[in-house]
């Protein structure tokens, strides 16, 4: 693998951070790269990797206690970057499991809920999903129509969710619903009567991953199914910020792998009696890619250091999600042009990465949403319609 390091980025990492990078990179090289083109072509998520990812220590790796890794934010980001160099779908699995489902329980659950679910999720014995987005409620979750009403000591849940990662293979779902008291979060075992998860197909992106529609019809839950610390949209947003942080790192992996594929090809592809890497226009493309990757790494590392210091702000996460994802998709597309017609073959990764990044660009906040988050921070005026009295 040819990794651009124009600024000696490695020197900014600690020994532990480099060790995490090397360990996850080795896993990707041996367990993902040889098979990913086939998984993607057949639209298969490799569930056999779940226990191996648990053994690798990346499920909830940034959470403390309850069998979780307790690693630093920077180490988690580096792991996300290396996983996404293999495929966005594999990094997404780790993100949904750890940054969304496990994070929701860790941040907002009772002690009993944490003890019951987190150790098994860290071991990969239980898979979780996170149900916020609805068919008609994406960027505006305050308009969700899923509703939980009290019924004696328990709850009855009705509604629908869409584009929910892992739902059809999950054993527990974190479902966000309107109640008479505002938005609340619920732990829903997926074998509960009335809960149905259906994989979405066909897909042109994230094919080696699982996204589902969920319908909930009179799903009855006990009183202790509610996450006691989750009140208002601030609760799911706190989990989304964990995932967005990981995306800021992860997309660099997709960009770097695309760059590597293009550089390797350009050095060996002979046209007009010389490698195409010798042509000025090809070199300009490669230089532009390498520079953007270096910039993205520095942005991600800055956020990681702030997060580890307890000083990371939501608008700063939006910088990385917006800028790094935008750069990554441009790099993947440009890398494909260097490969020419061969670039549409599954033997090469850039077009697969570009297709995946179309999804990554959309989920956990579109470009438009993150632009307006930053616009509100810069100007002091929010362009969003705020309807959540408990705070978003």
TrEMBL record:
Domain spans labelled Acyl-CoA oxidase/dehydrogenase middle: 129-219
Known catalytic reactions: glutaryl-CoA + oxidized [electron-transfer flavoprotein] + 2 H(+) = (2E)-butenoyl-CoA + reduced [electron-transfer flavoprotein] + CO2
Entry superkingdom: Bacteria
InterPro entries: Acyl-CoA_DH_CS, Acyl-CoA_Oxase/DH_mid-dom, Acyl-CoA_Oxase/DH_mid-dom_sf, AcylCo_DH-like_C, AcylCo_DH/oxidase_C, AcylCoA_DH/ox_N, AcylCoA_DH/ox_N_sf, AcylCoA_DH/oxidase_NM_dom_sf
Coiled-coil residue spans: none
EC number: 1.3.8.6
Domain Acyl-CoA dehydrogenase/oxidase C-terminal residues, every copy: 231-378
Keywords: FAD, Flavoprotein, Oxidoreductase, Transit peptide
Pathway recorded for this protein: Amino-acid metabolism; lysine degradation; Amino-acid metabolism; tryptophan metabolism
Domain (Acyl-CoA dehydrogenase/oxidase N-terminal) ranges: 14-125
Keyword Transit peptide: yes
Keyword Transport: no
Cofactors, names only: FAD
SUPFAM superfamilies reported for this sequence: Acyl-CoA dehydrogenase C-terminal domain-like, Acyl-CoA dehydrogenase NM domain-like
Family of this protein: Belongs to the acyl-CoA dehydrogenase family.
Name used for this protein in its record: glutaryl-CoA dehydrogenase (ETF)
Organism lineage: Bacteria, Bacillati, Actinomycetota, Actinomycetes, Micrococcales
């Amino acid at each position: 693998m040819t990794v651009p390091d124009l600024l000696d980025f490695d020197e900014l990492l600690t020994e532990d951070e480099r060790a995490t990078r090397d360990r996850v990179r080795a896993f990707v090289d041996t367990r993902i790269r040889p098979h990913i083109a086939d998984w993607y072509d057949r639209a298969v998520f490799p569930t056999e990797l779940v226990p191996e990812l648990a053994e690798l220590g990346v499920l909830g790796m940034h959470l403390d206690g309850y069998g979780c890794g307790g690693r630093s934010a920077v180490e988690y980001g580096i792991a996300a970057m290396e996983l996404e160099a293999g495929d966005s779908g594999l990094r997404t699995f780790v993100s949904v499991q750890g940054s969304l489902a496990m994070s929701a329980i860790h941040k907002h659950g009772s002690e009993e809920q944490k003890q019951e679910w987190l150790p098994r999720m860290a071991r990969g014995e239980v898979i979780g999903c996170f149900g916020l987005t609805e068919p008609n409620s994406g960027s505006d979750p305050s308009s969700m129509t899923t509703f939980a009403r009290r019924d004696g000591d328990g709850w009855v849940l009705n509604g629908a969710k869409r584009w929910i990662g892992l739902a059809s293979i999950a054993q527990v779902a974190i479902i966000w619903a309107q109640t008479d008291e505002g938005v609340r979060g619920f732990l829903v075992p997926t074998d509960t009567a009335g809960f149905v998860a259906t994989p979405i197909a066909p897909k042109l992106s994230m094919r080696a991953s699982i996204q589902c529609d969920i319908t909930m019809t009179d799903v009855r839950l006990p009183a202790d199914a509610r996450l006691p610390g989750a009140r208002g949209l601030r609760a799911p947003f706190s989990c989304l910020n964990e995932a967005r942080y990981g995306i800021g790192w992860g997309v660099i992996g997709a960009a770097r792998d695309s760059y590597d594929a293009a550089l390797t090809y350009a050095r060996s592809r002979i046209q007009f009696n010389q490698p195409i890497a010798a042509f000025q226009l090809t070199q300009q493309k490669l230089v532009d890619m390498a520079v953007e990757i270096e910039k993205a790494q520095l942005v991600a590392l800055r956020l990681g250091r702030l997060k580890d210091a307890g000083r990371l702000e939501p608008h700063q996460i939006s910088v990385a999600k917006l800028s790094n994802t935008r750069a990554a998709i441009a790099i993947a597309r440009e890398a494909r042009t260097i490969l020419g017609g061969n670039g549409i073959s599954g033997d090469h990764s850039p077009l697969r990465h570009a297709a995946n990044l179309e999804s990554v660009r959309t989920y956990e906040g579109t470009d438009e949403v993150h632009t307006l988050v930053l616009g509100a921070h810069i100007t002091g005026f929010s362009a969003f319609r705020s309807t959540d009295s408990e705070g978003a």
